[in-house]
Design goal:
single chain; alpha/beta; Rossmann fold; Arc Repressor Mutant, subunit A; 6 domains; 49% helix; DEAD/DEAH_box_helicase_dom; helicase activity; catalytic activity, acting on DNA; ATP hydrolysis activity; Helicase_ATP-bd
Length: 941
Amino acid sequence: MTEGDVAAFTHLGSTVRGALSERGFSTPTAPQRLAIPPLSAGENTLVIAPTGSGKTETAMLPVFDHLVERRPEGLGALYVTPLRALNRDMRERLEWWGEYLDLEVDVRHGDTTDYQRSKQAEDPPDVLITTPETVQAMLTGERLREALADLSHVVIDEVHELAASKRGAQLSIALERLHDLAGRMQRIGLSATVGDPDSVGQFLTGGRACEIREIDVGSNVDVTVRNPEITPEDEELSGKLVTDASTASHVRLIRDLVADHESTLIFVNTRQTAEALGSRFTELELPIGVHHGSLSKEARIDVEDRFKDGELDGLLCTSSMELGIDVGRVDHVIQYQSPRQVARLLQRIGRAGHRQDEVSSGTIVTTRPDDTFEALSIARRARDGEVEPAAIHEGSLDVVANQLPALVQSRGDTRLEDAVETITRAYPFREVTEATIREILGELHRNRIVWFDESEDRIETTGGTWQYVYANLSMIPDEETYEVHDIASGSQIGTLDEQFVVNFAQPGEVFIQRGEMWRIAEIDDEEGRVKVSPIEDPAGEVPSWIGQEIPVPEPVAGEVGEIRAVAEPQLKQGADAAAVGRELAARYPAAPETLAAACSQLEDQVESEAPMPTADRLVLERQGRTIVLNAPFGHKVNETLGRVLSALLGQRAGGSVGLETDPYRIELEVPTSIATSDVLAVLEDTDPDHVGTIVELGLKGSDALAFRLAQVSAKFGALKRWQGSGRMSNERLLSALENTPMYDESIREVFHEDLDVDRAARVLEDVQSGELELITHRGRTPVGLGGRSSGKELLAPENADASVIETVKERIRDDRVILFCTHCHGWKAKTKVRRVADQPECPECGSTRIASLNPWADEVVQAIRADEKDEDQEEMTERAFHSASLVQSHGKQAVIAMAARGVGPHNAARIISKLREDEADFYRDILSKEREYARTQSFWD
């Protein structure tokens, strides 16, 4: 041992040093050498170090040492983790130390029994492992508050994960409430990756002093990017796996990498991909399990244990496995498709190599040029430690609304200034004003959640406070799920989101879960259960979970643009894709054939004499009604620019403009009246200062804003008051809640999560100043065509996709509609969609202005005939006339679109406006809108 090694442990007392010897800890790990001195001195400390490097012991040894010296009467330390599964692991790791040191270590979360809770309140453990939500619950209990008054240490595990979420914003206020109870306490944050340690340290401490102790994670990571070439074996495999040869090559490469290592984690970006790949490995009878959040707790623990015991060679998993759940030793990590962000790659690859100072090895398996270039940028940035900053939620008003009732419930009558002081000490809320908090209290008062006496600036509880607090311990929005149960064994195998059940689930239908095929036997809507039986038929539909796409940051996308800029002159001078790939190999970790395959797209671009889109050059290409702006600025910037373009072009055209974005392209479907010069005019003439206003105006009628507004309003207790007892449309909800804190928070959240107004404004400034070159091109280009539509991985069997589309088509054709003439108001008929003529006409007056209405919409017909002006009827009448206009323009196609579930005239117009190659795409778009409706309908019913 060096002198530095010895020095770290000498900061600990003799009792803990004896435990170290007993446990076999002879040499401190790197984070222990760095962090034990300030931790032992009682300093607030953020420890950043790779997974498996002993962070937990780094934090807890000084805490144990302090608790041994000063036995607490109540709770001495809280260890807060974002996942319940981590609670279980932490207890197993810390119990030995507790037993040796005669300190009680216990766990508390949502599933803790009433008996255990009561026991913890009466006789608090010395160390309690818990979740952020359970901390909220503990703060309301009188005896637990007494126990918490003795608190001297709080450890926040995976602090980066919480810093970037509303759960973390809520926890930051809870930490200040703990401070009010216990006085100064040491705060310790643990993470494998943090892009901006200073701001995460401030988040942890509430702006107080914080020591940062960081191990360079990137230097300990060895990543290779591989895009497999298709082999004859892949052609054979594709037939067996009911997929294309390209996807078969991905399966084959993953299979071979797993075979080359002892224990491999295979990360994917969505649960759907995990299930789809899992079904392929099941078909090949390979020992690879599936692990994600929609599987039951029992199923997850089962695969974790089987992987730990060596029964499984690989584990297909999603982001939950990033957070250090103990699955034993991992010697390799595979990332399927680009991980999208540097922090995610480091978290995931960091799971490999749990021995001290061991390099973590990983492979990113990519699927197309965008994917490969993006992965190269991320791998290079990971190696150089260029991690994205945590996107802290600054001033979330629904979190303030959530915490005010909790404060008054736990404290009793509270002065406004005391509540303001506690809330604004929390780092994310440091700039929230008293005026804003008054406004929030006014809303809570109107909704009878708290009583706010403005004359005396006093907050009191009401009859609804207690119920609200316990129903809103979490900032995670409630989402309906159905439990999936094996009908033979009765055991739960997982869950399905409501919209999957609504749109796809019928008795007899087949789907994939846990990598296995299941046939639906029965659906019990009352109990929220789907009963299934296992089958061996390989043709099934993959469950469609709702999940936001991980946004690619602007610097990563910008580097992809830089790679293109480096390649372009070489290709123009006669170098081929392989030669350019060899040049890139000096900077990026990839196999030569992978680099050559990606560069072949750029070679095609040069050979087609199309301009190359780069970080300094935008290329606007057009074919027919499709316009693509090639712009390598990442998801959020492109989504913002896309909304500006679609809003302003839609105004010019007097109709809707279709919009799809990815990190490298903004794709628009425009009416024929829109010229390319109109698009250029928007980019060259729009005032950059107006970007935020334009986007907000565009959001006002959107389902996305209404969905967020419903979730935020629930935290204010406002939704029921505005909704009343009847159905409430998106438009009415948005209208009712405009100019309220709920509306402001919903806009803030959409901007925070999905958009980047400042950077989009700078792009317009750079275009207008000439710093960014803007070139137009007639026709589509290889790079422009390389986006989402060509890159969709057909992991679901093709025949299953076709059968789902056919099922949707048949269902809609059998649906009934009311056809009503809005010209003469005389003719009305109720019929099946399949019997509607290609261009419906009124048999009485010959008009083609025929509204297509729901079969229960007789009241709308009566209102139109009676010319009623009631507010509800007026809205429905307007929709009827909009419907008639669509049917007049598009005939039966409009009737089909509007017969779909939750697809009104507005969405039908969007669906119809898209230019498509085949009818199946039309029904896919309908299905997409139905899913969106199913996800949000519970807020309006």
